[in-house]
TrEMBL record:
Protein name: Flavoprotein
Signal peptide stretch: none
Annotated InterPro entries: Flavin_trans-like, Flavoprotein
Location of region: Disordered: 156-184
Highest rank taxon of the organism: Bacteria
SUPFAM superfamilies in the cross-refs: Homo-oligomeric flavin-containing Cys decarboxylases, HFCD
Amino acid sequence: MIGMTRTLYLLCSAAPPVFDVAHVVEDAQSRGWDVCLGLTPTAAHWVAGSLDGLAALTGNPVRWQYPLPGEPDPWPPADALLFAPATFNSLNAWALGLTDRFVAGLAAEAIGRGTPTVAVPCLSPALAAHPRFELSLSVLRGAGVELLYGETAPTAPAEGTPAPAFPWGPALDAVDRATTGPTP
């Protein structure tokens, strides 16, 4: 990781693509990113057996809780933020500014700081049909968040059908574009 100067906050909710996070970290690192991994408490529980390995892989502590008052922030400032997979609960909390969860707080602050931010929702068709979901997407888009959903990325599968591959590559491509501008 010598020579990496760009810092990516990779935030993950508890959805099945979180189990691929080590490969995503490696892909991001191969693109020149220093990765800081933040998880929802449930996502941290799901990958609990891998937390030490993920910290070793990233070279940064894996976090799912706010530090105590007065504790220093162990992460460098973010140059970009990728929230993927982002569940129904996480997206709605973020759009509403509910920051009791560490990752929602970081994502909310990224908007306020103007940090390039990309999110990839991951939820069931039933939750995607809930009226709050479209409202939350609208709020986040209006705040400058690039959302890979619908026409820009596979949506949730129909009940009983296999899930499409989660768009990790396109998500990292979007982060790269957001921080370097369009390719000539």
